[in-house]
Amino acid sequence: MSRSLRRGALAATAIVFSIASLSACGAGNDAQTLGVRPDNAATSVGTVKVQNAVVITQPKLDAEGPAVVSAMLFNNGAKAETLEAVELPGSNSPVKLTAASGSGPITVPAGGSVLLGGRGNASAVIEKGREAAKDGAAQEVVFKLSETGDVRLKALVVPASSYFAGFGPDEVQQRPAEQPSSTPPAPPSGAPTGSPSGSPAAPDAPNEGDRAPEAPSDSASASHGENH
Questions:
Q1: Quick one: which of 8, 101, 132, 157 is 20 to 30 A from 53 by CA?
Q2: Any idea what the CATH number is for the domain that residue 47 is in?
Q3: pLDDT tens digit string along 76-95?
Q4: How far apart are alpha carbons 119 and 140 in whole angstroms?
Q5: Which residues form the signal peptide (predicted)?
Q6: What angle do CA 119, 137, 22 make, to 5 degrees?
Q7: How much is the pLDDT for 162?
């Protein structure tokens, strides 16, 4: 290979690397944190920025069910913002918002951020997913915030696979099932009923004085009397 050809090849390689570097910088750290592709929709209005916005449908094209809006919302202002609604212009499908805690509003704190989508995070569920969005299309999404107002952008519609598998409708729907499983602190209340041995009553004894220890001793003496 001549020197001129080698110089041309090196220059082309340098251009490719520089474009890749710029794309990575433009995506920001948040795209890497979300584990999604950096070419997703982003926009900003005032002190609010929406990044990595996508509409995620069911994994299979022929599957019916809800879809979700996934995005990262940043608030660079001095006041907290409440996400009051997410709307899809041109669609009659409502979007149900749920905070990460399972109740209450979705609040974007001052100087902070909120992630929509994924297990354990706030969610924006499109109840009629297939009617509202088609894979491969660009869907207009409006984020309505208490202080900033409307933040509009066009988000790509993608299935819940590959990069987006962990942010799809199935991940959001699994969250309510986790909350009941976190409430089985009820066994302690059920334990006294199934504690003929009296051992669960023993931890309660320090809180109730000497009464709890006396009750087991009476029942124990009664049981001995019956045996004899």
A1: 101
A2: 2.60.40.1890
A3: 999 999 999 999 998 888 99
A4: 24
A5: 1-26
A6: 75
A7: 86
